[in-house]
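Posting this for the archive.
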Amino acid sequence: MALTGIQILKMLPKTNCGECSIPTCLAFAMKVATGQVEIDACPYVSDEAKATIGEASAPPIRTIKLGGADGFTAGGETCMYRHEKRFENQTGIAVLVTTEMSEDDIDGRIERFNKLEYERVGVIMRADLIAVKDAKNDEASFTALVQKVLDGSARASLILMSDSAANLAAANKVCGDRTPLLYGATLDNADEMAKLGQEAKAPIGVKGSNLDNCVEVSEKLLAAGLKDVVIDTGARTVRAAFEDNVVARRAAVTAKFKPLGFPTITFPCEITDDPMMEAMVASVLIAKYSGIIVLSDLQGDLLFPLFLERLNLFTDPQRPMVVAEDIYPLTGPGEDSPVVITCNFSLTYFIVSGEIEGSKVPTWLLIKDTEGLSVLTAWAAGKFGADLIAQFVKKSGIEDKVKHRDLIIPGYLASLKGELEEELPDWTIIIGPREAGHLPVFLKEWKPSN
């Protein structure tokens, strides 16, 4: 059962030292209770209290980390539906390579893994993992393929798939500090796999034949002292995978059933041979709780919609998406280029920047931090007023980049013109268009006034 902030406070040193970057122990305890910070952030809490609080405050779906420092994280989920709170860690998208594939096929998949990435509202969208399958049950070819993948992609987190614990152990040694998922635990080899997971300090993937069998294997691993697990219920139809994912999530979140309190891994690549159908299956499983999905290959036209779906599902509905406050040079501006200012709401930024880039007019775009609010909302909330805009313009360094002193403001802020002229006496305030779609014509006609 989760601990309250007061219960956690009783186990803290109560020194209010602030070394955790939070002013008081009470405030820190409240943040730990709500999952906003980890108990490890306190440098003086005892190991006993750390273990007690950590176990009590752990999410019902255990957090699993793969790869190195910037690797992949799955799990950590606390709710059934995003509107209840938020979904924590994005579904991992993996591509499968096997020891039976030709060198060209393997090289192509690794190349596409590295190459296919897209930017959307300031977020880089790309695949996360490469699943390496020991299809021949041969240690030498398996470890050689793992090494090839490691050499071919510096950022890929790995899933090592084999029925042999010995082969997995050998391949894991090749991985070094890039912690892989060791997939292949069954009832027959659960004890051996649990020992391997503890020695390698790596998560173990359960290879179930059905949901009940998956629970048995998971319970056996837990009884052996293993904590980090990823579960495969064995479902190889859309309906079965969908149902098993829902049952597992509900059992973990609602009933706190520990044997299913782990991220799931699903295999659209084994459900169908049709790439289009595989993408459709993947879209269902991303929406319904898969921690990792494994695809047979990566194709840009099929991958991009999955990235967008994932981005939308795992965006926190309680926090607006923003871009950083800064000066953004678009299409190579110089000292005679126009200066445009707007807010840091990501949608506003990408619409405005898209129109400017489309106009091919070199422009300095100033993005003011308005805490993710749009232009009019930010103005109404007092976060995009003349004084704040003036402060930003002065400290931004734009005055060193242009010879003129023209500042183009959004048309909806026309009422601020007089105040801005008082705050920025050296600048000429120009009222721009209300709609971003009118910016290209406006910028092409703009001439410096001073």
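The CA atoms of residues 135 and 175 lie 19 Å apart. The chain has three domains: 5-57, 64-313, 326-445.
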